């Protein structure tokens, strides 16, 4: 039962940004995506067909549609004995009922008040509020079909004792497709809006065999291009975290796991563990409701995580980074988060005295380089960068030797002739209204 159409959705894979520094020496643009899959995705121009009525087998009848996440019926009388095996992980944070979401903050916890130009903190605040850990009957307004429903399961768990598992499993393989397993959450009228963050575990999500996406009111917000090829072994403990922006008031948010999304007549058999699990659903408020946000109010980290720190000059109004002497490669990072419903434009003023490939200035979104600047500027210049909707980890980075060239190669290029410095000031974020 398809919840939304995938007509027009981009199935091309997202660039693998693991260890991607966007250096000039990076020339690996081959995503490993087979040409036949690209052609198949390009030809996919019609709405996803409804699964054939004859696709059902003699499996036992499933439970009827429910507005709550199904749970396992207790088989024993409650006792004072703990029901969970002791673990070394902290106790799971309590989850709140959706009926209480009016009390959720509409302003992110990393938005600060003050009169400083830079709000540097040791670590960014985790502003997430737990919503559902799929441990017990939920007060959230969940719904699903009685065919291939999502169910609680303990095979793979991020926190606590259970997660929720898609209805697509090994038994589904071989059925005529596409076969959907949809899970829908309906927010209430008093929902303040924000990001829904969640974690996904799947051994493989390889097109054309399987796809996973999330839609809001029928519009795809998390595409198969972003979830494609996220293998369990390549993530933290097998879990990959995603998020989708959801506006204020009532909306339908649907998690869709689909087998054979293109309805192909033949597919390769499953050669590893099948299935998809979700856990740890949380809410994060949008960073600000203001049309224009002065980023001096947003908390930022300066250096750390293997990077150097920026200094402050000109009465602490300007951040200054220098290429470190005596090192072949270095980076100075300022990081902050933006959570927005419709995206916007990051605006800033920059002055740089750098020469590529010796050094430069770059902006990264989620670890992927989106802009690189170098040259000899006589004064500050106004710059801007388009920021997509949703959660974005922004890194403002002064880079030394971003291409990671050897000393001999750099020496053969001669002296840079610039200072190896970058100055930044007056950061702001102009949000889109729609």
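-> sequence recovered:
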């Amino acid at each position: 039962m398809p919840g939304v159409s995938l007509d027009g959705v981009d199935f091309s894979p997202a660039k693998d940004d693991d260890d991607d520094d966007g250096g000039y020496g990076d020339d690996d643009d081959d995503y490993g995506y087979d040409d036949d899959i690209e052609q198949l995705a390009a030809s996919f121009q019609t709405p996803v067909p409804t699964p054939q009525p004859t696709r059902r087998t003699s499996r036992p009848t499933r439970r009827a549609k429910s507005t709550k996440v199904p749970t396992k019926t207790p088989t024993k009388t409650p006792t004072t004995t703990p029901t969970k095996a002791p673990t070394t992980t902290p106790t799971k944070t309590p989850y709140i009922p959706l009926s209480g979401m009016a009390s959720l903050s509409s302003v992110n916890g990393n938005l600060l008040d003050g009169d400083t130009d830079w709000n540097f903190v040791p670590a960014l605040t985790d502003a997430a509020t737990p919503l559902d850990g799929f441990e017990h009957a939920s007060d959230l307004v969940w719904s699903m079909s009685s065919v291939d429903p999502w169910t609680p399961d303990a095979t793979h768990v991020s926190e606590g004792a259970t997660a929720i598992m898609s209805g697509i499993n090994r038994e589904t393989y071989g059925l005529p497709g596409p076969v959907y397993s949809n899970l829908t959450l309906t927010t209430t009228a008093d929902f303040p809006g924000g990001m829904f963050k969640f974690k996904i575990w799947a051994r493989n999500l390889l097109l054309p065999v399987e796809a996973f996406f999330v839609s809001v009111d029928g519009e795809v917000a998390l595409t198969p291009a972003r979830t494609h090829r996220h293998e369990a072994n390549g993530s933290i403990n097998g879990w990959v975290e995603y998020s989708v922006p959801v506006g204020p008031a009532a909306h339908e948010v649907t998690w869709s796991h689909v087998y054979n999304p293109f309805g192909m007549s033949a597919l390769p058999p499953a050669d590893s563990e099948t299935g998809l699990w979700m856990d740890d659903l949380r809410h994060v408020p949008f960073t600000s409701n203001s049309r224009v946000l002065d980023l001096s109010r947003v908390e930022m980290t300066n250096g750390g995580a293997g990077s150097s720190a920026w200094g402050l000059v000109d009465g602490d109004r300007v951040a200054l980074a220098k290429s470190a002497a005596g090192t072949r490669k270095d980076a100075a990072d300022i990081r902050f988060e933006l959570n927005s419903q419709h995206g916007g434009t990051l605006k800033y003023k920059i002055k740089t005295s750098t020469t590529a490939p010796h050094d430069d200035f770059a902006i990264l979104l989620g670890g992927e380089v989106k802009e690189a600047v170098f040259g000899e500027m006589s004064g500050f210049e106004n710059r801007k960068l388009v920021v997509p909707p949703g959660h974005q980890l922004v890194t403002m980075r002064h880079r030394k030797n971003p291409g990671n060239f050897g000393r001999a190669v750099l020496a053969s290029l001669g002296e840079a002739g610039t200072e190896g410095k970058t100055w930044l000031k007056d950061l702001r974020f102009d949000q889109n209204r729609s």
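The CA atoms of residues 408 and 414 lie 10 Å apart.
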